[in-house]
Amino acid sequence: MNARRPPSPWLKLAVDIGPLAAFFAAYSLAGLMAATAVLMGATLAALAAAYALERRIPKMPLIGAALVLGFGALTLALDDETFIKMKPTAVYLLFAAVLLAGQATGRSLLKPLLDAAFHIDDAGWRIMTLRWGAFFLAMAGLNEILWRNFPTEIWVNAKVFGFLPLTFVFAAAQAPLMRRHALPEKTKPS
Fold first, then answer.
1. Do 130 and 48 fall within a single domain?
2. What's the rounded Cα separation, in Å, for the pair 6 and 116?
3. Rounded CA gap, 155 and 144, in Å?
4. Are 161 and 134 in contact (CB under 8 A)?
5. Which residue, among 183, 81, 89, has the nearest Cα to 138 in the 3D structure?
6. CA–CA separation, 190 vs 39, rounded Å?
7. Closest by Cα among 47, 42, 53, 55 to 9
8. How many domains does the chain have?
9. DSSP helix/strand/coil, 112
10. Domain hosting residue 29, numbered range
């Protein structure tokens, strides 16, 4: 039986950020309503590509897609850009709520998601979960400030060129925590 190779990280990244790039291109050419429709289509295409690459659709992109489709449909049906601008707030609040509620019940929900890549102790997972929960709350607040107080163009530019880099910077800033709480490497028997 053929073992399926894992997808290239670059291809996976393209699938993950493709809808955002399509959104920005459509916004630049035709405005927010057209960009919303393009985002919805690109999100469905990204889900199909994720399925083609992995023969499954991971939960986080599926939840994100449901929110894009729901808020996008409201935006288009009601001809009101408020809904698509609120979508990042809803996503960030959902992620924060899931992480912090899990932590409050004694379960780090990051561990099952990331344990294959990062091997840290339970105290490290607790701290990382709290940090990510706080980060998502801060990002929800930032989105609210931006869309409520600034022109659409500034919000779009922040969404496309600010939110993702902020997330990468925050993730990179967790490296010292992961080093401090790293578990010893398991040696494989010869």
1. no
2. 14
3. 10
4. no
5. 89
6. 51
7. 53
8. 2
9. helix
10. 7-78
pLDDT in tens, the chain (190 residues): 445 556 566 667 777 789 999 999 999 999 999 999 999 999 999 989 888 887 888 777 888 899 999 999 999 999 999 999 999 999 999 999 999 999 999 888 888 777 667 888 989 999 999 999 999 999 999 999 999 999 999 999 999 999 989 999 999 999 999 999 988 876 555 5
Q: Are residues 158 and 67 in the same domain?
A: no
What tokens appear for 112 in the block? 């099952």
Q: Are 95 and 42 in the same domain?
A: no
Residue 130 lies in a domain: yes
Phi then psi for residue 182, to 5 deg, are -65, 140
- Joined together, the tokens standing for residue 87 give 């979508």
| Distance (Å, whole) CA 159 – CA 147 | 10
Residue 155 lies in a domain: yes
SS3 for 85?
Answer: helix
CA-to-CA separations, 2 to 5, 143, in angstroms, rounded:
9, 45
